[in-house]
Amino acid sequence: MADVIMRVAAVLIFSGLFAGLIRLVLGRTLIDRIAAIDMLTVMSISLITLYAHLSGRFTYLDVALVYGVLSFLGVLATARYFENGL
Amino acid sequence: MGFPPVSHLVLATGCSLVLIGFYGMLTHRNILRIIIGFSLIDTGIHMILVATGYITGGTAPIIDEALSLDAAATRSVDPIPSALVVTAIVIGLSVTAIMLAYAIRLYETKQTLSLDAFTESKW
Amino acid sequence: MIRRGFIILALVLFGLVFARLIGAYQEQSVLRPLAEHYVTQGPRELGAANVITGILITYRGFDTLGEVAVLFMVAAGLGLLLRRDGDGPSVSANTPLRPASELVVTGTEVLLPLIFVFGAYVIMHGHLSAGGGFQGGAIVASAVLLLLVTQPLTRLRLDLLSITESFAGVLFVCIGLLGLILAGGFLDSRFLPQGQLGAFFSAGAIPIISILLGIKVGAELSVIIDRFRR
Amino acid sequence: MLDLLILLICTGILASGVLAVCLKDLMAAMISAGLTSLFAAVSYVLLAAPDVAMAEAAIGSGLATFIFLYAIRRTSGGVSTMETGEE
């Protein structure tokens, strides 16, 4: 059962990364690209978590926490840049 | 599996990233874009260094429940490139910061960032 | 046009060099002798479960000291380069900054202490799990950056930060000299009891050096960020 | 499994690297360069170097991008008199 769940999660993360990359490359406006980058960060967090489970090393989860901090900070900073607040 | 080994993939990506950054540095005339190319080269070199430290099927050299002290010699990856790259990343940030500060100073004197405007400093 | 030709030529030559390097590279299956010594003997000698932190702080401690000196010089040089002139043209100074919305300010107030705690965790747990002085210092500096982004009118106490980082640097060198006197060499961390491998109070002086390094790096990166604001 | 993950991440690195060089908008190019570092950090985790991944994510992708942001702000973004094209 757990194996099936892992496979489903891997497929979902793969398709999420793929869709984010497509939006990043094609993205019409800058805002589209920033939204795609935020999504790609979240997908990277889940990818690291999945790999930490697969390899059995839970020290990798600290890196995912750093990504969580960065995800919030990055979008906030770019948004403040556009509203002329930086 | 027809796949090449994992470290070869990362090595090839790092080398391509160095080439991409080099191309960007050579073609663009905007100083900020040249700095972006420089940081791409930086990232590529870090990837090359980390990839040379990978051992087939290795895991992180951190001793805990998942990796006992006796198994570390056979299962862990090479820690020396990792330690070098950690210092290299911080130095890369310092170099980028200095270059950006010079870019800001140049902009304050000439009100432009194009390389074509700074003709008197060419030699 | 001829310039473009030269660029392509240079790229192709570099590409050939890289292709030969990659083609000749063999992925290793065993550790090199020096790395094997570090991985097998490092935890026994130093008591640090994280071999990379052990290498960074003790075996290659002198490199780390030099690197911190480079960071200090960068912070000082930026102060010289980006000093605010009396009549500086300062293109963007005439447009007033827009304050952040209340949602962002409240969210930051909730999140900021958590990020600081996480940074402290990364610094102080550096000898047991992934992390250490540099990474934790960078996280602390990100928290300072978050504060500066949401409340752009904040003034950092630059003099206080300078004093803090100077004290951390002096203590760093002092601990290095203690290692020289009481143990094997400069920055040798074995003059304190080694403790149980994997316990929080272990690894000799590595956690103390790590904390000093984290304070110093965090303060210096905060100063570097603050110099770049208008 | 590891092969596939690395392959996908390498594709992401190359795509964002090419975007960082090719995009006309300076801001978008800068963000793409930050994304390159972010994906590189994921590849470091997959290569079993979590310390390097943490440093690259916090410093290379976080602080460096924001310093770029401040620098673009102080040089007033894309300057109109500037040639961004090639030659």
Could you list some keywords that capture this structure?
heterotetramer, C: 230 residues, mainly alpha, D: 87 residues, 0% strand, flat, disordered C terminus
Shape of chain D: flat
Which geometry of chain B do the CA atoms define? elongated
Order of helices and strands of chain B: HHHH
Averaged pLDDT of chain D, please?
A: 81
Number of strands of chain D: 0
Q: Sheet bearing the most strands of chain D, described? A: none
**Mean pLDDT, all residues of chain B:** 84
Share of β-strand residues of chain B? under 5%
How many distinct domains of chain B? 1
- Report the span from N to C terminus of chain B: 54 Å
Percentage of residues assigned to helices of chain B: 55-70%
Q: How much is the radius of gyration of chain D in Å? A: 15 Å
Number of helices of chain B: 4
Output the helix-strand order of chain D. Answer: HHH
Strand content of chain D: under 5%
Give a count of the beta strands of chain B, DSSP E runs of length 2 or more: 0
Structural class of chain B: mainly alpha
CATH class categorisation of chain B: Mainly Alpha
Protein topology:
The complex is a heterotetramer of chains A (86), B (123), C (230) and D (87).
Chain B: H1 6-27, H2 31-52, H3 72-75, H4 79-110
Helix pairs in contact in B: 1-2, 2-4
Chain C: H1 2-24, H2 33-46, H3 51-59, H4 61-81, H5 102-124, H6 133-150, H7 158-182, H8 206-228
Helix pairs in contact in C: 2-3, 3-4, 4-8, 5-6, 6-8, 7-8
Chain D: H1 2-22, H2 26-46, H3 50-74
Helix pairs in contact in D: 1-2, 2-3
